[in-house]
Amino acid sequence: MQREANFTNAALMARRRAALPTGLGQGFEIFVDRAEGAEVWDVEGRRYIDFAGGIAVLNTGHRHPALVKAISEQLDRFTHTCFQVLAYEPYVELAERLNAMAPGNFAKKSFFMTTGAEAVENAVKVARAYTKRSGVIAFGGGFHGRTMMGMALTGKVAPYKIGFGPFPGEVFHAKFPCELHGVSVDDAMASIEALFKYDIEPSRVAAIILEPVQGEGGFYIAPPEFAQRLRTLCDQHGILLIADEVQTGAGRTGTWLACEQWGVAPDIITMAKSLAGGMPLSAITGKAEVMGAPAVGGLGGTYAGNPLACASALAVLEVFEKENLLQRSRDVGARLVNGLKGIAAQHKSIGDVRGLGSMVAIELFKNGDLHAPDADLAKRVAAEAAKRGLILLTCGTYANVIRVLVPIVASDAILDEGLAIMAAAFDAASS
Ligand SMILES: Cc1ncc(COP(=O)(O)O)c(C=O)c1O
Question: 117: Cβ below 6 Å to ligand 1?
Answer without folding.
Answer: yes
